[in-house]
């Protein structure tokens, strides 16, 4: 039987599925440090990860490893150049999380705009003594302009919801989406700078790459309206968190909603002390149904990638399909 490592805690029924095909080493504890991960991968044919960094050194320490299945749509934890050089297949879990993640983007954006978290904390602190006409005045979402940076599948699901709120949609993306999609979403393409100047609520839904590092920093925040909100459901590192905390503290923008952070699970200490930010611990895809779908899809990818099960050799979501069928190097 081939051997696999499941590097993170995961639904036990998915472990049972994997056990039908593999000898499973399950780390049902904290994320493994790099040396321990490499040690546990040394005799494995495959692995199921969730954000664990896999680079050239880890692959070199695991000469049998042929497939690494990430339980996430984002795979910036994989060094894909190293995967390609070693003929190791990487897979991810796109699509099953689009709608759930778009729902959450709206939840964060609306919470930021309408000051839900900030006013809730104030109430819990026992500070609510009287109704006041100017308590926690926020920004309207309906009728405003939504700015989506990253118009992929999740960005489109997010933009589609704007119709019910009678919003204008502007977007920025590496390349323009097809005219039919622009028409369906009633979305106008803008440069990043023009979008930041125009939008009332900016939502980031782009993948993290070296080029996207600090896509939003001090200069970009300076372009935004003082009444605007910024929501990040994409990846830590896309926003310069220190610059954002300063802009929030000085009210250069009104509020932010953040689900992802530079260096998470650590959070920049300044973000923990500014009141006008809604903070959540990387849970945008965390509905019960969607996390189960992601875990099962990650298992499907691993099973098929390692050449067993009903889709043997045809994993649903290969990131680098060119390596399929090539010998490990
Ligand atoms: C979550 O962050 C994902 O990439 O799926």
Automatic annotation (TrEMBL):
Keyword Oxidoreductase attached: yes
Name the UniProt record assigns to this protein: Lactate dehydrogenase
Record InterPro entries: D-isomer_2-hydroxyacid_DH, D-isomer_2_OHA_DH_cat_dom, D-isomer_DH_CS1, D-isomer_DH_NAD-bd, NAD(P)-bd_dom_sf
Entries under SUPFAM superfamilies matching the protein: Formate/glycerate dehydrogenase catalytic domain-like, NAD(P)-binding Rossmann-fold domains
Alphabetical keyword list: Oxidoreductase
Endpoints of the signal sequence: none
Occurrences of domain D-isomer specific 2-hydroxyacid dehydrogenase NAD-binding (ranges): 107-284
PANTHER family to which the protein is assigned, alphabetical: 2-HYDROXYACID DEHYDROGENASE-RELATED, GLYOXYLATE_HYDROXYPYRUVATE REDUCTASE B
Domain D-isomer specific 2-hydroxyacid dehydrogenase catalytic: 4-307
Pfam families (alphabetical): 2-Hacid_dh, 2-Hacid_dh_C
Gene Ontology CC: cytosol
KW Transcription (keyword) present: no
Family in the record: Belongs to the D-isomer specific 2-hydroxyacid dehydrogenase family.
Molecular function GO labels: glyoxylate reductase (NADPH) activity; hydroxypyruvate reductase [NAD(P)H] activity; NAD binding
Region (Disordered): 309-329
UniProt source species: Paraburkholderia caballeronis
């Amino acid at each position: 039987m081939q051997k696999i490592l499941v590097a993170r805690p995961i639904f036990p029924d998915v472990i049972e599925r994997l056990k039908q095909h593999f000898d499973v080493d399950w780390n049902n504890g904290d994320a493994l440090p790099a040396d321990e991960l490499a040690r546990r991968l040394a005799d494995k044919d495959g692995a199921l990860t969730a954000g664990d960094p896999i680079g050239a050194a880890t692959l070199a320490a695991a000469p049998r490893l042929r497939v690494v299945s990430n339980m996430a749509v984002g795979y910036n934890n994989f060094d894909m150049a190293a995967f390609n050089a070693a003929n190791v297949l990487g897979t991810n879990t796109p699509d099953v999380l689009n709608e759930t993640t778009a729902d959450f983007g709206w939840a964060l954006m609306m919470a930021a705009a309408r000051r839900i978290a900030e006013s809730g904390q104030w109430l819990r602190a026992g500070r609510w003594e009287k109704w006041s006409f100017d308590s926690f005045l926020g920004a309207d979402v309906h009728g405003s302009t939504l700015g989506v940076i990253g118009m992929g599948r999740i960005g489109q699901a997010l933009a589609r919801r704007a119709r019910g709120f009678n919003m204008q949609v502007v977007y920025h993306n590496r390349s323009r989406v097809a005219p039919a999609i622009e028409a369906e979403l009633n979305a106008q393409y803008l440069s990043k700078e023009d979008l930041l100047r125009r939008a009332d609520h900016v939502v980031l839904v782009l993948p993290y790459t070296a080029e996207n590092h600090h896509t939003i920093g001090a200069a970009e925040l300076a372009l935004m309206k003082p009444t605007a909100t910024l929501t990040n459901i994409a990846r830590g590192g896309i926003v310069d968190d220190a610059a954002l905390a300063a802009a929030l503290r000085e009210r250069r923008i009104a509020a932010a909603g953040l689900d992802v952070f530079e260096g998470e699970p650590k959070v920049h200490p300044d973000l923990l002390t500014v009141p006008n930010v809604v903070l959540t611990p990387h849970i945008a895809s965390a509905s019960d149904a969607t996390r189960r779908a992601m875990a099962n899809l990650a298992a499907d990818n691993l099973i098929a990638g390692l050449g067993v099960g009903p889709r043997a050799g045809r994993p649903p979501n290969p990131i680098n399909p060119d390596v399929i069928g090539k010998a490990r190097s």
